[in-house]
Request: fold
Amino acid sequence: MKKNISNPKNLFSLILVVIFGFSGFVLATPGDLDGDGHVNLIDFFLFAEQWLADDCISPDWCGGADINHSGIVDFSDFAFFAQNWSPATLLWSDEFDGTSVDTSKWTILSEADGSDCWYRPENVAVSGGTLKIYNKEELYSGRHWTGGHIDALYYPQYKYLVARVRHSVANSYIWATWWTVGWTGSTWQWPPEMDICEFQGGPGKSPGQSYHWDYAGSGHLYAGDDSGMDEAQWHTYGMYWDDTTAPIFYVDGVISSAPVGPYEGTLMGAKLKLTSSPNSQKRYSGCLLGTMEVDYVRVYDAPPVQAATQHLALNKPVTTSSAKNSGGAAERAVDESSGVTRWESNWYDPQWIRIDLQATCSITQVKLNWQNAAGKNYKIQVADEPNGPWTDCVSITNNYTTGWITYNFAAKTGRYIQLIGTARTTAYGYSLYDMQVNGTVIDPNHPDPPARTNLALGKTATSSSNESGSYTADKAFDGNFGTRWSSGFSDPQWIYVDLGATYTIDTVKLYWQTSAGKTYTIDTADSPGGPWTTRASVVNGSYGLKIHEFAPVSCRYVRMYGTARTWTYGYSLWEMEVY
Reply:
């Protein structure tokens, strides 16, 4: 449960110093269980509720308390939690724990919102620990639509403002905003306007963050970014400014946007506002209308400390759906050549490139350096396992930019990160000079798995047939993603490799070209004539990397035996690896 505690820092800091000997705290995100950017006693109560939980799994990880993703909440997590304790002081908050709006903190407005909507006080309510602003299609005060609006009776200046917000359903047609205008003396002023979380609803939209100003005769100007967040999920949205810095925006305690604008436009206090109504630009009779929900609003004397980031992907292991030739191999995208070497895929969609960061990391930024043949539609995703499930960091459509593109987003946690493209800007393959992944290592003490040897590399291979002399069985074991084995255009077909001696194996990786196996088995034997024992079976297979894991078994021969293809062409394998 949330705790409305104004300054819990001093007592617990003393406890931490006694237990751990810590006197400083350097990271920002791990331990911030309520997402406001600060690790404090409010988070400690949430952490205590999960203490010794032993059923933590992705993606929740026991409400974030299992910081190192070990499956249990224990002292190793508490060490991270303690290390990240925030020095910031909570100055003001509303946790919305009552049964109605606290009118000592807020004014509930009753006024027109445009020509055909009204901010109706009855649409603002508090229940279940959250503020709710309802949006309705109804006849009221001569209007056809109603929403709600409250203004805070607290006017902070040069502080960190943060609220935890979501909307009851996705893709609704509401215009819901957590925002501020200027405050001087006893009067509000516009501009400036800081939209900390502005959802201008409709399908495909996400909350934006922007700064509006009018300084030195510039007229009304603004700058900002889309957050990329799912508006139906809980996230925290924050903003900090001071007398030398224009507004900086945060999502889940991590800097998400720093619009370029004059700091001189915000040299004043802020009037805090929460508003929601049916979107005047898109609403129509019968459209879906969600509810704006706010878990809390808080004001701190300082913004969240941002952890120092590093290039997490530099020279890390990479796999990819395809590589046009050895000069365009996947590892070229993480060698920090800055435009000299590159990964180039084959000339069809989709394609992907995947990086093993070799530790659980908190990722906040990805930089792509596209060659002229860039991705048009693609996603950047993270996961804890090499085969997912995957969580989107960003989803891009209609990109035609080449060169460097920087994507900032709320922190995502995982060990694996991939770019998966579904459309290209040219007829050529995806061509990427560099993929930089920036963030912090969450679990530096987690040992990397020992390096494994591909037992099939360069070994003798045999197949049921070959499409031609250019697509022979040995091409699937040469370590070159620019060559491949392709069978005759019929079923069944098979390919096997002689490991040269008996080994204990538990994994077979197949890198399928577009013409892949739909139904097939992975088999092992002690001699080329069998008998063969099936270790893995696949139905409804598809192209790309397929990893087949099974109980360890001793064998000398490993086979893929296909009985149905995805295309009318033959079975086509870039590589077959055995571990």
The chain has four domains: 9-87, 93-300, 310-441, 460-578. The first strand starts at residue 90 and ends at 94. DSSP finds three helices and 33 strands in the chain. The longest helix spans residues 9-20.
